[in-house]
Amino acid sequence: MEESKRWFTESALFGDVFAANRLGHEAVEKGLGDEAISWYQMAADQGDSYGEFNLGLCYENGIGAHVNMKKAKYWYQKAALKGDDQAKQRLKEL
């Protein structure tokens, strides 16, 4: 597992958005919200709709940050504009 995490981390740091999102998910599972937001932000900064959606979830649910519905909607909207159906659904429900 250590070796796997090392490779995912290296991949994410070199721009792999899949790896960044995966590390974000692992951080959420371990209760490390600040770390999760960092990984999701890394993916979102590269225009990844999945990273944007994940940031929206973090802000909506207070994972690694205070609940901030304005930021949640902002990130959901960015993802929705790229065709993310989950983000579109969250926007409808908010």
TrEMBL record:
SMART domains registered for this protein in UniProt: SEL1
Chain segments annotated as coiled-coil in the UniProt record: none
Full protein name: Sel1 repeat-containing protein
Organism of this sequence: Saliterribacillus persicus
